[in-house]
Amino acid sequence: MERKCNNQAFLILMQTSKAIHDRIKEEMAEKKLGITEFSVLEVLYQKGKQTIQQVGNCILISSGSMTYVIDKLEQKGLLSRNACPDDRRVIHVTLTDDGNELMNEIMPKYHELVEDMFDSLISDEAETLVHLLKKVRKKV
Q1: Cβ atoms within 10 A of the Cβ of 42, count?
Q2: Angle value at C-alpha 40, between 127 and 16, nearest 5 degrees
Q3: Can you give the pLDDT at residue 45?
Q4: Which residue range is the domain that position 58 belongs to?
Q5: C-alpha 53, offset from chain centre
Q6: Residue 20: CATH number of its domain
Q7: Considering only CA atoms, which of 23, 28, 42, 26 is closest in space to residue 117?
Q8: pLDDT in tens, the chain (140 residues)
Q9: Is residue 5 part of a domain?
Q10: Distance between CA atoms of 101 and 14, rounded to whole angstroms?
Q11: For strand 79-83 and strand 50-51, is the pairing parallel, antiparallel, or unpaired?
Q12: CA 72 to chain centre
């Protein structure tokens, strides 16, 4: 017997999220980056120096996974770790020159890709979608 999802909004949201995720993953694979690696670089590109915990909170992954991703990006020469002079327990991460250069190259195409995925929505529809998603998020 096949079970059916009773909440079509949830099902469509999950399917859409996966489709968007897969499309971005495909683009990042061309730059030899995983989606999580790209997400870390994007946070640093947009916000500048961050602690590892701050980055993890932005992209919603565990600290153990963050350490692994940070290690990989550091080995690729795309970011660097620096101990906080005021608190030895805190490690800051920043993009290297190579990391900034890569992100300067990636971000215009990334923004174009996102715009393309959402260009079927008129402005009012996009605002409504944002409003509705925030409404659901508040309940969580």
Answers
A1: 17
A2: 40
A3: 97
A4: 10-139
A5: 15
A6: 1.10.10.10
A7: 23
A8: 667 667 888 989 999 999 999 999 999 999 999 999 999 999 999 999 999 889 988 987 877 788 899 999 999 999 999 988 888 888 899 999 999 999 999 999 999 999 999 999 999 999 999 999 999 989 88
A9: no
A10: 33
A11: unpaired
A12: 16
> Quick one: CA dihedral 58, 14, 9, 129, positive or negative?
positive
Q: Is 136 helix (H, G, I), strand (E, B) or coil?
A: helix
Q: Is the dihedral of CA 88, 85, 80, 103 positive or negative?
A: positive
Q: Is residue 69 part of a domain?
A: yes
CB contact set of 92 (below 8 Å; sequence gap of 6+): 49, 50, 51, 81, 82, 83, 84
The pLDDT score that the predictor gives to residue 4 is 67
Position of tokens 């550091």? 74
In the chain, the number of structural domains is: 1
Instruction: Please report whether residue 79 resides in a domain.
Output: yes
The CA-based angle 139-59-17, given to 5 degrees, is 65
Cα first-last separation, the chain = 31
CA dihedral 52, 56, 59, 65 (to 10 degrees): 110
